Structures are given as structure tokens and as C-alpha cells.
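Late entry, written up from scratch paper. The run itself happened at the end of the previous shift, but nothing got recorded in the book at the time, so transcribing now.
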Amino acid sequence: MSELNVGDAVPELRVTPDKYLPHRYAGASGDFNPIHIDPEFAKMVGLPNNILHGLYSMGLVARANAALSGGDPRALKRLSVQFRGMGAPEQEIVVTGTVKSVDGNRVTVDTIAAQGDNQIIRNAEAELEL
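Output as recorded:
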């Protein structure tokens, strides 16, 4: 991306996790909590269906911000997020961001990940060295 300025929108990342993503992510992360992989269990504990792992959503925020450096994850120097909503498989996740500050080659981006009106991650802040 060319020169960034405070207030610039960063490119959106749009991902639609398939229904098997929670199972694959459980295997990769070691988090086999049944609210992620068992729809019937999730409903039994009051959820509408099985939900995505929060760390998967955080990974999308990291990926969207790393795209500012051509996809190099080493550019991401700091990432903080607030998990605020539950993500669902088979619904598009849109990660958006706005440049908050620029200091030399350091850029800070405010980021949100949402499924429709449901902000699953908000108040996220990524610091990159570009």
C-alpha cells in the first residue's frame, strides 16, 4: 500500500468460514470446546448454534492488518483486541480498519471484525512497522 495517512481506510478483508472451519481450527489450536464443534451442545447451553473460535477471528484481524505490508506477518508488532460478539460459521466476516496514527514507518490501525451488524471484534488496535 502507498503512503498511509491518519483517517485512511485500509483494504477490507472478507472471509466466509465454511461449516467445517470450527472443526479444522479445533484440530489446529487444540481447543475442542464443544460450543465450537457440536451444534447440539451449543444449543443446549443457550447458543443459537456452534460458534467460531475467538482466536480464529483475531487471526483474521491480524491477517487484514498484515496485508498493509504485502502480507508479511513480521510487520505486525502489536495487536490488541476486544472479543465482543460470537462469530458463526457460514456467515461472511468483514474486517475493516482506519489508520489511527502514523509515526515514521510505524502505523497504528483501529480495526473491527463484523458479521453483519454483529461486531465480533471491536476496539482492536494493530501496530505495524512498514
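The first strand starts at residue 9 and ends at 15.
(Scratch paper discarded after transcription.)
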